[in-house]
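Researcher: Go.
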Amino acid sequence: FGIATDENFVITTTNRKEITEDNFSELVQDGVTLYLLQSVDQMLLSATKERIDFLPHYDTLVKSGMYEYYASEGQNPLPFALAELIDNSLSATSRNTGIRSIQIKLLFDDSQGKPAVAVIDNGRGMTSKQLNNWAVYRLSKFTRQGDFESDHSGYVRPLPVPRSLNSDISYFGVGGKQAVFFVGQSARMISKPADSQDVHELVLSKEDF
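Model: Structure:
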């Protein structure tokens, strides 16, 4: 840094907290911006830039559905939330060559855990990558770019037939995750791709967040 051996200096955070041996591990993290100054209260000689990396706060996911569904203009929002979950199954089974099976179960047996809503279908299943993409907030199921593997790759949106089993019935477009957290406290996805022997499971939990 071109500092003379007899010159004093300090290293601080952008909040002007001096880095010392005692607080080094606490304050110096990957990506943190530091100042090299002559003193803690030295005036900066020019404007500085700081790079910020962030993930959305978990409230963005677990509470966003509350706003989306309560904005349903006086209608009972629960059917719309369930429709989002059924919509995933409609997409997954849209190209079945045989019987299309979609079941909705309300589970109240405490011995199996907390009460739950289960949507079960015989669709083509998701790979681990597709399941991972499903968990990403605001990632459209129709987005395809770069190495992104769509959670509905190969799916073709059917012609709009209002509220039929051959159409997408998603009304608000906020996705299954927000629907899940509007209804409950966690989401559990279990999926086996039709051409694979692997079963993939994903759990998103407000408690874990």
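Model: Residues 19 and 26 are 9 Å apart (CA to CA).
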